[in-house]
């Protein structure tokens, strides 16, 4: 099975690419083989992730070379769905774009092969130059709280992105604040630019099952627990995320949010070996 996407501006001019999966995969392998060690971010389990410069811009390449049946079996035995290639990420990015959720910009994508264990695929996305992960941006919030307006805009932005994504049947599976990248130059705007990244494990269905809602939302909450959150911050997030606002969140959806809190606290205890901080009043 062959799939291919090439953005129009990359198919013309100098160094134009060919809209053919074999050609794109060959080009990607050349980049991967010649990448400097400092530009390689990951190289294991059949996936190599690297940064490269091309056409005067910075880009990221994820090259999937097939994970093998042993890795597939290991994932399934551990109750995890294996990532077979770049198609998950490509489809998730395009779905989020259609929803108006800030995410990565895809330049090229290709996939080739029918054997699930040996699919060859690649995806190239623009480097989000000038952005910072929310994990880094919020690192010192507990000691140096931000302006209320900044806190409110970011809370609303995350809740809006998560709500749109989940209502459209998309779940991330690695939904942590480190996978949101903020353009600080937009912080004075009513809705700052905050990009959802690392979508290679995302799932798309007609409807997001409750267990995956809980997993995503608990991951997000867990990853923000050391950011000096206030109880009112959590309520604002719940209100913005939930269609129908806080009345529905604390009524019909109360059990969902209780499950989110319990899972987030378990994650924190497991990761840090201590009790999570209590939200302020």
UniProtKB/TrEMBL annotation:
GO terms for molecular function: ATP binding; kinase activity. One of its GO terms (biological process) is lipopolysaccharide core region biosynthetic process. The keyword Kinase applies. Signal peptide: none annotated. Its EC number is 2.7.1.-. The active site is at 174. The keyword Nucleotide-binding applies. It is an enzyme of class 2 (transferase). Keywords: ATP-binding, Kinase, Lipopolysaccharide biosynthesis, Nucleotide-binding, Transferase. InterPro entries: Kinase-like_dom_sf, Lsacc_core_hep_kinase_RfaP. Pfam families: Kdo. Coiled coil: none annotated. Pathway: Bacterial outer membrane biogenesis; LPS core biosynthesis. Belongs to the protein kinase superfamily. KdkA/rfaP family. Kinase involved in the biosynthesis of the core oligosaccharide region of lipopolysaccharide (LPS). Catalyzes the phosphorylation of heptose I (HepI), the first heptose added to the Kdo2-lipid A module. This is Lipopolysaccharide core heptose(I) kinase. It comes from Seongchinamella unica.
């Amino acid at each position: 099975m062959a799939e291919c996407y090439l953005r129009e501006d990359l198919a013309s001019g100098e160094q134009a690419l060919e809209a053919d999966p074999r050609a794109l995969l060959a080009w990607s392998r050349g980049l991967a083989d010649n990448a400097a060690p400092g530009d390689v971010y990951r190289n294991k389990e059949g996936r190599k992730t690297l940064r490269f410069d091309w056409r005067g811009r910075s880009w990221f390449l994820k090259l999937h070379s097939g994970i093998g049946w042993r890795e597939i079996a290991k994932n399934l035995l551990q109750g995890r769905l294996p990532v077979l290639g770049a198609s998950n990420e490509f489809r998730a990015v395009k779905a989020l774009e259609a929803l108006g959720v800030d995410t990565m910009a895809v330049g090229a994508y290709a996939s080739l092969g029918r054997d699930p264990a040996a699919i060859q695929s690649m995806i190239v996305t623009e480097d989000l130059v000038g952005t910072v992960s929310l994990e880094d941006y919020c690192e010192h919030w507990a000691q140096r709280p931000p302006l209320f307006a900044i806190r409110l805009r970011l809370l609303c932005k995350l809740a809006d992105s998560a709500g749109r994504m989940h209502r459209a049947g998309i779940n991330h599976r690695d939904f942590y604040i480190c996978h949101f990248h903020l353009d600080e130059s937009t912080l004075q705007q009513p809705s700052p630019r905050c990009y959802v990244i690392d979508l290679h494990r995302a799932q798309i269905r007609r409807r997001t099952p409750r267990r995956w809602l809980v997993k995503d939302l608990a991951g997000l909450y867990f990853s923000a627990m050391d950011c000096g959150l206030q109880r009112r911050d959590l309520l604002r997030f719940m209100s913005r995320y939930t269609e129908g606002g806080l009345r529905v969140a604390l009524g019909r959806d109360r059990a969902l949010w209780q499950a989110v809190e319990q899972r987030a606290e378990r994650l924190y205890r497991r990761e840090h070996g201590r009790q999570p901080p209590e939200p302020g009043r």
